[in-house]
Write a structure and sequence with these properties.
By secondary structure, the chain is of the alpha/beta class. It has helices at about 10-20, 65-75, 100-120, 180-195, 220-230, 250-280, 295-300, 335-350, 370-380, 420-440, 450-455, and strands spanning about 35, 40-45, 50-55, 80-85, 120-125, 135, 145-150, 155-160, 175, 205, 285-290, 305-310, 355, 385-395. The strands form 4 sheets. An 8-stranded parallel β-barrel has the order 3-4-5-10-11-12-13-14, surrounded by 5 helices. The chain has a two-stranded antiparallel sheet with strand order 1-2. Helix 4 (about 180-195) runs parallel beside helix 6 (about 250-280).
Length: about 450
């Protein structure tokens, strides 16, 4: 028996993992497999390298800057980029390139070509900013919500939510994720842009989390509810406006049925349709399901790469770890929530679980690699085997320090003072992820998610 004296399970696991990571056998970074004892030949996939979210500020790019950024990423051991266009740099509007315009598509085409030469895979969000939406989203396709008048009569209206941090050419209403036709019309814009410019689709399409998505209704909800639940919701909509403390057991069951219907519509009309659309174009999907009004395991399992998200500095009681008062973000990473993505991947037979990693550990240029590593190890212990940094901003080659910056941290670019250490840091990640990708899930116990308890609560 091992006595757990003054050590939490998490800290023991961390220490064991750290010990393990420092005593791996010989590693040839340029080879395609890891060479350990004679019985072990562990493959090294492209996905074993760390990837990074690549913010395009105003999409104000040129081929010289693209070549410089991708070359620096490759030299640092970064194996892929996820293109996420956002608002532009103040005073640089004249150089902005409208999203999905012919010029924008040619920039993407050059990234794919140059990235392939350098060994850097191209991924992109299926939209700008966050969440999906844009200028072609008309009111009929925009996100909706339910509202009540003084008589408790329900009606539907627009949320009026627009794409947050939209790039030029990406501004507009957020789409109704619950409406199949609205989603299909949104995706048609990409079909047109890629076809007209004859640009190959990227390896992976990405969707960010639903945590700011305020929609809770859709025009066909009554019809879908009747079909799926077997009764008419109209006489009971007033229950949605009741305080939780005043709801009866019967009320809770009706609310649960409403939530289940909404979750099914999200799964079928957005997540599954988006994934099938990507597959038709030779791409795969990567998705953050947290924040969605649905069974998270179902949403995660419907895509090719489920993704979780860390937030804040993980310290694990590490002696001497720097925590600057006023500059360090509180850790909000719940390991049970992080494991939703890997659990869905394991159950549904998906090879990769990714993570948005290093989101707001500290402020710009204050984050050390010693602060990054515990958060990285937390992801590994949560079942993640495909790390995405959060993140890297595109900067022109001749931009003066500190380059073009987005407010979100941590800065994974040559402008950071520890960039010279990035190749070693990337090799550590590549080593660990090769082992994690090589292994198979080996779970003794399957714990069912109490989904219906959550619906009725």
């Amino acid at each position: 028996m091992i006595k757990m004296d003054k050590l939490t399970n998490a800290s023991c696991l961390i220490r064991a993992f750290l010990f393990f990571s420092f005593f791996l056998y010989s590693w040839n970074v340029d080879a395609q497999e890891w060479s350990g004892p004679s019985a072990l030949k562990i493959p090294v996939s492209q996905e074993a390298k760390p990837y990074t979210r690549w913010w395009w500020l105003g999409s104000a790019l040129d081929s010289v800057g693209i070549d410089y950024n991708l070359t620096e990423f490759a030299k640092a051991g970064i194996g892929g980029v996820e293109i996420t266009p956002i608002y532009g740099v103040k005073g640089n509007d004249a150089n902005d390139i409208p999203y999905l315009s012919p010029q924008w598509m040619q920039m993407l085409k050059y990234v794919e070509k140059r990235g392939a030469e350098l060994g850097v895979e191209t991924n992109m969000a299926t939209g700008t900013g966050w969440p999906f939406g844009g200028p072609l989203v008309q009111e009929e396709d925009a996100a909706k919500k339910i509202v009540f008048d003084a008589n408790q009569d329900a009606t539907m209206e627009l949320t009026k939510q627009k794409v947050k941090r939209a790039a030029p050419g990406g501004e507009g209403f957020v789409i109704d994720h619950f409406d199949r036709n609205a989603v299909a019309r949104y995706l048609e814009r990409f079909d047109t842009a890629f076809a007209h410019q004859q640009v190959p689709f990227p390896h992976t399409m990405f969707n960010d989390s639903y945590e700011v998505y305020g929609a809770d209704w859709t025009p066909k909800l009554y019809e879908e509810f009747q079909k799926r639940r077997g009764y008419d919701l109209r006489p009971f909509t007033y229950i949605m406006n009741k305080k939780d403390s005043l709801r009866t057991d019967a009320d809770r069951r009706i609310v649960g049925d409403y939530r289940e219907t909404l979750g099914e519509l999200l799964l079928e009309n957005f997540t599954t349709q988006w994934t099938n659309w990507a597959h038709r174009h030779g791409s795969i999907t990567r998705n953050q399901a947290h924040g969605s009004p649905a069974n998270l395991l179902d949403i995660y399992a419907a895509v090719d790469i489920p993704e979780c998200e860390g937030f804040g500095l993980s310290d694990f009681g590490i002696l001497g770890l720097r925590k600057d008062a006023g500059f360090t973000k509180k850790n909000d990473s719940d390991i049970s929530m992080l494991k939703y993505a890997s659990s869905a991947a394991h159950i549904s037979g998906k090879k990769f679980t990714s993570s948005e990693t290093f989101t707001w550990l500290t402020e710009h240029f204050r984050t050390s690699l010693s602060q990054c590593k515990p958060d990285l190890d937390l992801m590994f212990l949560s079942g993640v085997n495909h790390i995405f940094f959060h993140g890297s901003c595109y900067s022109p080659k001749d931009a003066e320090w500190p380059g073009w910056r987005f407010y979100a941290s941590v800065d994974m670019t040559p402008y950071n003072n520890w960039w010279t250490a990035m190749p070693a840091f990337s090799r550590y990640i590549q080593r660990c992820q090769s082992f994690l990708q090589w292994g198979d899930p080996d779970n003794d116990v399957l714990v069912y998610l109490p989904y219906y308890d959550m619906l009725y609560d």
